[in-house]
Write a structure and sequence with these properties.
Chain lengths: ~425, ~140
């Protein structure tokens, strides 16, 4: 875990140490130390929540710049479906696809196309009799990561299938090699155009595969400006989109679930809502559901921290865009087995459960620590004021037990101490009189 | 080995929307101690059901959880109406839950039977007009 490469990071000189992010990080990964915020790498799930809510724009996402890939002979663009919702008065996805070619890409492979294939195989997978239900979507890397850290019991419920981004890269590279036999593997790069920092960290630390086939992750917000320019000149788009409404719908919350043509599903968006749902599932509620779609961002991927448009506007635009699209434009080969999913579509390796919340590997030690936490917590005023730099009094008590904090940083404890000192002084001076 | 650890929660009977929160917190702390996942699940399901019962049927109460090596005890005590016929209450499908909570999926009459199923021991002490105390033990 220590070599985990995160996307979300802090611009130290911009941070005012205001604790806005500390209080809202869903994994309690942020503390204020020496006047600015510090992210615990083990706990951060790159959800981007802190980027969205920092009033001083001190939190940023690291992503790749297009420039870095200029020397590749063959550049593939993998646009996320959320990209289509960013443009005003877009009549047809074809303009975006052609615009990307104009920007210098040699090939454009829509992630929405791969999403339609994933949807079809998910329908097959759900028919398997021996799987844990409800199946939880693994497409949002924040959710998969969150489950691996906080919901050990639900690891087996995650859909063990490679997500559309991964499948798109695999298929696009394969097609490129077939079309251009002269190309070598190292001549080709597949670049995902991402709505969120979580996909950046997914590619660097993949889930379910050893190594991601995606070579770089660009941000929608950056490509957007290039695209707006290149799309201006397009009158009759030459290239055409190859997705139906299923693929395009993946961009917003509920899209993946609706594509299963099964009404026993639940979809939730926004990280706090997702955590609530997972808590309920872990309690054994919703056992009659077949599928749960969770998106860490409000509204789904259109709400990602690297998008430009308001998620609800983007969603409305997508609704217009997909109105005249066929249901799907991608079909998988027929198979006699209705539960068939090709092995290369399934995860190569299981998700590892990494109990970052655990106090100690030894249960006896962990119990001792928990008892200490309880005792320290009792000393605090339970106001969760954040002045100590931790999100709650309880989290601060945990920090102290883990030797990452000092009780004197609690202003209430400090005040008590000062009062006592004061009293002692007074008594001293009285005794002198 | 270690001293038992005790957690205490006031379960608010007036605030239906926060019903179930104590069991979520217990789950969190059990994870930090490193209790096996299936044990956590049994404890949190049993406690959740009992907590919801206190809110729906008894206007809230107190929840205490005691964790020892190999054993977790959950004590849910309320000063509600009490249960006149415990055996009947334990029957699957028996419920006096009001209509307004049924639309949320409660009132299947499965809470008490599930609490029994998920724990190694369950004891109900109840006096009509005075209240109910449910004590559950999960061994691991
Ligand atoms: N703490 C309590 N105080 C008073 N009555 C209770 C209490 N707990 C349970 N009961 C009674 O026992 C009945 C059965 O409880 P049980 O938890 O099995 O079902 P339920 O709460 O009605 O429905 P469900 O738990 O399936 O949502 C309740 O309907 C209620 O009449
Ligand atoms: S929200 Fe967080 S990152 Fe932004 S200034 Fe406040 S403490 Fe610093
Ligand atoms: S990206 Fe999310 S998990 Fe990571 S520090 Fe920010 S709010 Fe916390
Ligand atoms: Mg009940």
């Amino acid at each position: 875990m220590s070599n985990f490469k995160h996307s979300v990071f802090l611009l130290e000189d911009k941070c005012k140490g205001c604790t806005n992010c500390v209080k809202r990080c869903p994994t309690e990964a942020i503390r204020i130390q020496n006047g600015h915020s510090v992210i615990d790498e083990e706990r951060c799930i790159d959800c981007g929540e802190c980027i969205r809510l920092c009033p001083y724009k001190a939190k940023k996402a690291l992503y790749d710049k297009l420039d870095k890939y200029k020397d590749y002979k063959y550049k593939i663009a993998l646009p996320a479906p959320a990209l289509y919702g960013q443009f005003d008065h877009l009549e047809d996805v074809d303009y975006v696809i052609s615009g990307l070619y104009e920007c210098g890409f040699d090939y454009v492979f829509e992630v929405a196309k791969a999403a339609e294939i994933v949807s079809e195989y998910t329908r097959n997978y759900l028919k398997r009799p021996d799987i844990e239900k409800p199946v939880i979507s693994s497409a949002c890397p924040v959710i998969a990561r969150l489950i691996s850290k906080r919901f050990p019991y639900l690891c087996d419920n995650l859909l063990p299938m490679i997500p559309p981004i991964e499948l798109a890269a695999k298929l696009a590279k394969k097609e490129a090699m077939e079309k251009h036999p002269e190309l070598k593997e190292e001549d080709i790069c597949a670049l995902f155009i991402s709505p969120c920092p979580a996909k950046v960290s997914y590619v660097r630390n993949p889930i379910g595969v050893e190594k991601s086939s995606v070579d770089g992750v660009l941000s929608i917000s950056e490509i957007y400006f290039l695209l707006v320019n290149s799309m201006k000149n397009i009158v009759n788009p030459e290239h055409s989109a190859q997705t139906g409404l299923v693929g395009v719908s993946w961009a917003s919350s509920g899209g993946e679930a609706k594509a299963l043509f099964n009404d026993r599903y639940l979809s939730a968006d926004g990280i706090e809502n997702c955590i609530k749902v997972l808590d309920e599932v872990e309690n054994g509620n919703f056992s009659s559901l077949e599928f749960i779609e969770l998106n860490a961002c409000n509204g789904g991927c259109v709400g990602g921290a690297l998008t430009v448009e308001n998620p609800y506007i983007a969603k409305a635009r997508l609704q217009t865009l997909r109105r005249y699209l066929p249901v799907t434009q991608n079909h998988v080969p027929k198979n006699d087995d209705p539960t068939f999913v090709p092995t290369e579509h399934m995860w190569e390796k299981e998700l590892e459960y990494s109990p970052v919340m655990q106090l100690d590997a030894d249960m006896g030690e962990a119990m001792k620590k928990m008892a200490d936490i309880q005792a320290i917590y009792e000393m605090f005023p339970h106001l969760d004021c954040g002045a100590c730099g931790a999100p709650t009094c309880r989290a601060f008590a945990e920090d102290i037990v883990k030797h990452n904090g000092n009780a004197n940083d609690c202003i209430f404890i400090m005040r008590e101490k000062i009062r006592e000192l004061y009293k002692e002084k007074e008594n001293d001076s009285k005794s002198v009189d | 080995m270690s001293e038992p650890i005790k957690f205490h929660f006031d379960v608010d009977g007036d605030n239906f929307s926060s019903a179930g929160e104590a069991s979520v917190q217990v789950k969190r702390m059990l994870r930090q101690i490193g209790i096996p996942a299936d044990v956590i699940r049994r404890v949190s399901v049993a406690m959740y059901e009992g907590e919801i019962n206190m809110v729906i049927h008894a206007d809230g109460g107190n929840a205490d959880v005691v964790v020892e090596p190999g054993k977790i005890v959950i004590i849910l005590a309320d000063r509600g109406p009490g249960i006149a016929d415990i055996e009947l209450a334990m029957t699957e499908g028996y419920s006096t839950a009001p209509e307004n909570v049924r639309s949320l999926g409660f009132g299947a009459g499965m809470g008490l039977p599930n609490m029994k199923r998920y724990t190694d021991d369950m004891k109900i002490e109840s006096v009509v007009g005075q209240g109910t105390t449910v004590t559950m033990t999960v061994l691991f």
